[in-house]
Amino acid sequence: MQRIHNFNISPEEYYARGKKNDFPRLDVCPCCSYPSILPRHGFYWRNALFRNSYFRIPVLRLKCPSCGKTISFLPDFLLPYFQYSLEYILEAAKKYIEERKATTYYQLLQFYRYRFLRNLNRIEAFFRDQGYRGFIPEKDKAIKLLKLIGAFPKAKTFAKRFQDHFQHNFMAN
Ligand SMILES: [Zn+2]
Fold it and tell me: Distance, CA 31 to ligand 1 centroid (Å)?
């Protein structure tokens, strides 16, 4: 299981701290509710790509001694399974959907757009579950939902809450 965690630091700082970061703990297994502090189970390394920079960063894993599942804490500037940062992805999807402008290479854009459009109904359901009662037009749904998600860094909160709510990211397959 991947969790999105707000470390409250910049990607640069996250990278600089490496394995010495202030990582969260879990007192209860989120998979089986086993009531014990979950021991650490090493790190995995992943890429974090930004418009003009690139980091390779450690992600902490915990492992439940009861059910054997692992739980990892992804910093909230990333999305599970995406190498590019949340900021980059949202910006690219937004530019392409709203303005039809290509800011990055075409195939990647098509992919982001496809994934975003594919999740539109789930994203709408999320906002409804959160109590949003405003009108969402069927025709311009993508643009309306992009507005509700908002710009980075506000969108980090959305991505984390969506993940907590549905247990997958808002750009999931
Ligand atoms: Zn467990």
Answer: 5
